[in-house]
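Interim report, section 4.2 (structural modelling).
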Amino acid sequence: MRSSRAIDVSTGLFVLLGFAAIVFLVTQITNREFSLRSESYRLQAQFENVGGLKAGAPVSMAGVTIGRVESIGYDMDLFKAVATLRIDSRYDQIPNDSDASILTAGLLGGQYVGITPGGSDEPFRDGDQVEFVQDAIVLENLISKYLFSQAGSRDEAPDAAPAPQE
Amino acid sequence: MDLLTELLAKLRGFLERVGAMTRFFGQLVWLSPAALLRFRLIVEQVYNAGALSLVIIMTCGLFVGMVLGLQGHDLLQRFGSEDSLGTGAALALLKELGPVITALLFAGRAGTALASELGLMRATDQLSAMEIMAVDPMKRVVVPRFLGGAISMPLLTAVFIMVGLFGVQLVGVQLLGVDQGQFWSQMRGAVELDDIREGLIKGVVFGIACSLIAVFEGYNAQPTAEGVGRATTRTVVISAVVTLVLDYILTALML
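Predicted structure of the assembly:
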C-alpha cells in the first residue's frame, strides 16, 4: 500500500490533468483562440461577400500558407465585410497592388484567401488595405442567375417557332 | 409449463434486481452529501478509480485516435476533402467514441476492481464486522467508492478525447500530410461548445451508471468465491450494455 501522501499527489495530478484536458478542449478545438502569437503584420480586405470564410482560415500565396484570417467583421458604413488578415513577417515583400480572392479548397474543403501578386514596387505595410478583391462565389447565386436567364429567354418568345439551328 | 414458470421466475428476478438497484441508487444519493464531508475517503477512491486508470485510458485513446486518423483519411480522400479530417475526428471523439470507450474501459478497469473488492469484503465478513462496530458500511465504504468513480469518469473522458485528438493529429498531419492549419482551423470552425458539453454530460452519466452497477454488484455479491467472480463478470457485462443503451437515449435527447 502506498503512503497517503503519494496517493494525494497522484490524485492531484490526475484531477489537474483532467481539468487541463477540459480546458484544452474548450479553448483549442472550438473557435475561441488563445494561441501564442508570432511576428506578423495585418492587412484589411473588404469583400461584398465572404461566403463561408471563417476566422482562422489560411491566407495563401501560390498555395503556400503565409498567414491566417484573424477576424471577420461587418462595416456598417460601407455595407461590406471586412476581413483582417494576419501575415507572417517573413513575407514582407508582397506588392501593394496584389489582389485577394476568396477561394475554396477542394470540393467540400474550407474557404481560404488566395493572394495573387501584383506588379508594384512598393510592398504592403502593417494596416494597409487590399484594394483589389474578389468575392466568394456563392453557388446559389450562380444557379439562380443561370435559371433566370433560361426562364427569361423562354418568356421573350413564348410562341415563336423553334430557333433554327445554325 | 416448466419453461413458462422458469421464464416468469427469470423475469421476476430481473425486475427484483432493477428495483433493488433503484433503491440502492436512492440510498447512495441520500448519503452522498454527508460523505462529501469525509473528503479524504473520496480522494482515495478517486485515486483508485481515476489515477490508476489513467495509463490504460491514455494508451487506448492514442490508438483509437490513430486509427481514426487512418480510417478518416482514407474515407475523406475519396471525396478529396482530407482537410475535414480534424472536424470529423474531433466530433466523433467528442460525441461518441470518447465517452463510450472510456466508459467501457472504466467498467473493465475500475468497475471490476470495485466489485471484487466489495464482494471480497462481503465474503470475508468485513462488512458485517463494520456493522457490529456500529460503522455503517454504506457510508464508510460504498458511498466514497461510488462518488470516486462518478467524479473520475468525466475527467478520464476529457483526457481520452484530448489524447485521441493528439493521435489523429499524429497520423493525419505528421504521417499522411494533411495541412496542419486546415486541420485545426476547420475543426475550430465546426466544433461548438455544445458538442463538448454533450461529451462531458455523457461522461458524467456513464460514470454514475458504471459506478452504481459496480458497487451494487459487489455489495450484493454472494459471499462465496464463485459469487465474487460472478459479481465481477456481471459488472462488466451490465455496464457495457447499460452504457450503450444510455448512449442511444442521450444522443437522441441531445441531438
